[in-house]
Every structure is written in C-alpha cells, then in structure tokens.
Amino acid sequence: MPLSKDPRFADAFSRAPAGYSLTQPQGKWAWERPPRFEDPEQVVGYILDKVEEPRAKNRYLKLMLAGVSIEEIVNSIAIGGFSTGNFTPDVAELIKGPIATYFMGLADENNIPVRVFSTPNGGPPDDEDDLDDITILEIMRKRNPKVYREMVQMQNDLTDAARMELEKEKGREGGFLAMDPSEIEDAEIIEEAEKE
C-alpha cells in the first residue's frame, strides 16, 4: 500500500519530525557502526564464497532462469551488504562490476539465457533519447521560457519564409491572375510594342 493511502500517514503530525533520527542512540543501526570489511577485494571474496554454497548458487540460477536480471541481483547483494554493516556504500558500488561478471559466467556455464540489465529486453539501455520533441518543448516552456520563445520565433520566421517562397512559385505558375500588377503592365507594354 502506498504511503499516501496508509492511514498512519494521513496526518502530517503523525510522522516523526525532522532530525528525529539524531535523538536516537548512536550505533543503533548496523550501517552506523564501522563496516566489517573495508577492502573491495575482501568483500568480493566474501560474497563469492557465500554464493558458491550449493543452496545459494541454486537459488541464483533459478532467479536468472526466471528472468531476474543480473543488475537486479547485484544491486540487492550490494544493498543487503551495506544494510547489514558488512561494507560501506562506496565499496558496494565498487564490487558491482566483479560480482556481475561472476554471475554472467555462472549463467554461461549453466546455459541460461541471461538478462544483464533490468531493461525490457535485458540489453543495455538505448542510447536514443526517451524524450520526444514535444515533451522537451513543454519542459523548456516551463523551465527556460526565454529560449523557448526564441525557438518558437525562429520556427515562425522559417515558416513565414517558406510560405512566401511557396506563394511566389504558385504565382509564377498561376497565369496572369496570379501575376504582380507591375508584371502585367510590363507584359502589356511588350505586347503593344510587338503589334506596332
């Protein structure tokens, strides 16, 4: 249930005030104490020893077979290790690469089609921008109105120039009705001169 729908959080005064955690005894949580490991290499060795246990290995193989991505597995290991006080958040980030490589090798050894990333297709995130032009323009209109107005004005100027060029082209093709009055006068003078 989302917090906004939870009746305990309906009243703003039912929450702990800001700074409440500073009034609690220090060291209450595992991550507030010094970590068990400080060296990333030690952490990788510790984690791989745990994963190599037959029961844990079998569980991770089943998860990968079920379609859980390696990225999700590695993130859960990193968060779990930090929350239990085994290592710091910095070390948690540093170990992600070697742990992911291990799981890719494990999947390959067991012929499991693996999803490396937690994207819909399991591949790396697309380099293409997810934001379409309309969304970008809407954000720009709200956040950077000066540049937005300049872009709109530039677009309007280009549209007007294209429209005028198109009208000129149509005028040349449209016969004497679409001609400029000066062009009509010139044509009449030439025609009279030819008659004489």
Description:
The protein starts with 39 loop residues before the first helix and ends with a helix. Among the domains are: 29-123, no CATH class; 166-196, no CATH class. The protein contains eight helices and no strands. Helix 6 (133-143) crosses helix 7 (145-173). It is mostly helical. The mean pLDDT is 81.
Give the termini separation. Answer: 97 Å
Catalogue the unreliable spans: none
> What order do the SSEs take from the amino end to the carboxyl end, as H and E?
HHHHHHHH
Helix share bin? 55-70%
**Discrete helix count:** 8
Mean pLDDT comes to: 81
Which secondary-structure class do the elements indicate? mainly alpha
Radius of gyration: 35 Å
Shape: elongated
Question: DSSP strand (E) fraction?
Answer: under 5%
Instruction: State the total count of DSSP E strands.
Output: 0
The major pleated sheet works out as: none
